[in-house]
Design goal:
mainly alpha, Serine Threonine Protein Phosphatase 5, Tetratricopeptide repeat
């Protein structure tokens, strides 16, 4: 195009940005577009923010936003969505509210859906409730996706009554909206995940059977993975292996990973060694697979195997990523990392966690039922 003296415009660069498969390509296209004066086009800016975030370059996405002279709602939505993907969307949304950005830029449903999803993930109840109030007070259109996000938010925060009220006001409901009223694929993933406890194996197997026989739902890899997980955790490792062999789809890491974990938990070291070797080749950048295999070797007393796995991780540039979770207390979001003992209140936290674990043990032993089924 450039060789034929046809000057690309903002629409051209918007398409090119979306087609960039690497960050280096994106930076080249972005630099050229800036030289040609496209920084004021809101759709181009929005696309750049989205693609930067997809490549993990959140700081570049923020720089693009800050340097833009035309920050309309589509740009705010892209930036907030980008921050939500890395767990920081709520803080940015609070910044938007604090600076009264929403007075200059009228938020839309897409922006609120992104923030609600982030609120759901970290349990930020006050922010989600504020969104609901804002929508009601300002007469914003209740799109299907926004109502569904509100229902999901209230349900996962434990406010069932509020979820029902939103649901009852909906003139149109899709399968995602009905998923908490009538079991579907997503519902059963939630149920089977909850059954990943040694005393709920029977519930998991019955639920899987009901899902296929009563509701005619074809199991996905996620459903199979949940069943393998609960079997392996319960010590039924050989049954889990037999279950895998009878699956109608090809097993992947979501299947072999739980089996490997079960092998480590219950002493099936030879089988675990075989599965572990396969997994680190199947998912060479998944740090958790290496850790499990190294632990397997350690339990077998094969220290040369442990050293070999660690060397392999180093040679392949595999970075260990610790598991983490969020919780909101008094509008402050706290991040918890697996096995973290640095928090000043860690002793009290682990004491409460231990108490909750005992209560779950007692409840699951007495209430081995599923009420909605």
């Amino acid at each position: 195009m450039l060789n034929t003296n046809i000057r690309p415009n903002s629409n051209t660069f918007t398409v090119l940005v979306k087609a960039c498969v690497t960050l280096s390509y994106l930076e080249q296209v972005f630099t050229l577009s800036m030289k040609m004066g496209n920084s004021s086009d809101v759709y181009f800016v929005s696309s750049v923010i989205n693609v930067f975030s997809k490549h993990g370059a959140i700081h570049l996405a923020r720089n693009m936003f800050d340097e833009s002279s035309n920050r309309k709602v589509v740009c705010w939505t892209s930036l907030v969505s980008s921050y939500c993907s890395c767990g920081e969307g709520i803080e940015l949304f609070r910044e938007l509210k604090k600076n009264k950005g929403y007075a200059r830029v009228r938020p839309n449903g897409s922006l609120f859906v992104s923030v609600l999803n982030a609120c759901t993930m970290v349990g930020a109840f006050e922010e989600g409730k504020w969104i609901h109030s804002y929508v009601e007070e300002n007469g914003l259109e209740y799109e299907l996706e926004l109502r569904t996000a509100l229902i999901d938010f209230y349900m996962k925060c434990g406010w069932v009554k509020s979820a029902v009220q939103v649901f009852d006001k909906m003139p149109v409901k899709d399968v995602a909206t009905w998923s908490w009223k009538k079991p579907n694929e997503v519902t059963f993933i939630g149920v089977l995940t909850a059954c990943n406890h040694k005393n709920m194996l029977g519930v998991a197997l019955r639920s899987f059977g009901i899902m296929t026989e009563k509701y005619g739902i074809t199991p996905s890899i996620e459903h199979y993975g949940c069943v393998v997980d609960v079997l392996a955790r319960s010590g039924q490792v050989i049954k889990a292996l037999s279950f895998i062999r009878n699956m109608h789809i090809e097993p992947d890491g979501a299947i072999w990973g739980p089996l490997l974990n079960g092998c480590l938990m219950h002493g099936y070291f030879e089988l675990g060694q075989t599965v572990g070797k396969y997994l680190i080749e199947f998912e060479p950048q998944h740090s958790g697979r290496y850790v499990l295999l190294a632990n397997m070797y350690a339990n077998m007393g094969k220290w040369e195997g442990v050293s070999e796995v660690r060397k392999m991780m180093k040679d392949r540039g595999v970075v260990i990523v610790s598991a983490w979770s969020f919780i909101e207390i008094d509008q402050t979001i706290h991040k918890f990392v697996a096995d973290d003992k640095c928090c000043l209140n860690s002793g009290e936290i682990y004491e409460v966690l231990s108490d909750l674990g005992r209560k779950v043990e007692e409840f699951s032993g007495d209430k081995d039922v599923l009420f909605f089924i």
